[in-house]
Amino acid sequence: MPQTFNTHWTALPEYARSTVWILLITVTLIICVAMLTLWERKVIGWMQLRRGPNRVRIFGLLPGIGQPFADVFKLLMKEVIVPAKSNKFLFHLAPMITLVPAFAAWAVIPLSPDLVLSKADAGLLYLLSLTSMGVYGVIIAGWASNSKYAFLGAMRSAAQMVAYEIAMGFALVGVLMATGSMNLGTIVRTQGGGFLSWNWFWLFPLFAVYFISGVAETNRAPFDVAEGESEIVAGFHVEYSGIAFALFFLAEYANMILIATLTAVFFFGGWQGPAEGYALLGLGNTFLGAPSFGWLLLKVFCLLFLFLWFRATFPRYRYDQIMRLGWKALIPVTLVWLGLEMVMSAYHVGPWSRAWFN
Predict the structure, then answer these.
(1) What tens digit of pLDDT does each residue of 282-304 get?
(2) How far apart are CA 350 and CA 190, in angstroms?
(3) What DSSP string runs through 48-90?
(4) What is the DSSP string of 145-194?
(5) Separation of first and last alpha carbons in the chain
(6) C-alpha to C-alpha distance for 265 and 268, rounded to whole angstroms
(7) In the predicted structure, residue 1 carries a pLDDT above the cut 50
(8) Cα-flanking dihedrals φ and ψ of residue 168, to 5°?
(9) By the 8 A CB rule, do 226 and 157 touch?
(10) Is 197 helix (H, G, I), strand (E, B) or coil?
(11) What percentage of the chain exceeds 70 in pLDDT?
């Protein structure tokens, strides 16, 4: 049966196979977003000694498992109210601009040694361009709503974007210097050799900067001043309801999964096993050393937990604190570490001692 399936699969045209993978990844990502909302409520409930969702079931399964689907049904049934003096075209366009980059970025992400939609050599540039586009949906939503609160949230988001996009870009320059490639599959393969060969070890400050900037870029707590309920009554999406609001909601959680996946790819070896380079200990040939999609999934799971942990424990930063952290802390850290990378490269220390740099 598998042989027959492989024969039929390889006989399909390239565009047909790509379409199947695109649909599969898109549907899986939407389901993961739904489960992430439930997991977030459960994790925060456990941290605050509460139960979280524990009522809605599906086919008698675990209590609370149907809560995300109940939320989707509720949002689909609600009316989308468009403000009378808003720019109606941009008002409807903004949620799509926010959502599309979060899904389109998966085209170049290597999910396993053999599974990637596009092996683009400039995949890193493709990701940088897409991740910087998503925030324009927030800005357009705030402006098109013709509301002062929404516009204030959009301007906060614009300022935050400038500060943290620069820091995130510099952190990826460090990854580019360490791996010598903008192809994400190559970036993962250059980290082979076990968990001490992953980029987090030599580029730990850049990993911290990239992940913190990723939390800020997704407007997650404690960087959620663009939608600060206590000051600007939900911020940029205050005028949105129903499915239009659901698209912003979907984009936020899809971006969380995207940032966690990119962090795993850039700094934690992607699908590489943690014991790959430890053959002398007898671990290199076991499942601990074998590369697989499961390792990428586990790393993304752990990084997503940090997103939820931050929301449950950190209070929201003030606007001036966010700007100060971005401009006066994260950007200088990346510049200093890039200088240290140049020194390590000149003396062939760390990843620069590997064969492909000689």
Answers:
(1) 665 677 778 889 999 999 999 99
(2) 12
(3) TT---S-S--STT-STTTTHHHHHHHHHHHS--PPPTTS-HHH
(4) TT-HHHHHHHHHHHHHHHHHHHHHHHHHHHHHHHH--S-HHHHHHTT-SS
(5) 47
(6) 6
(7) no
(8) -65, -40
(9) yes
(10) helix
(11) 91
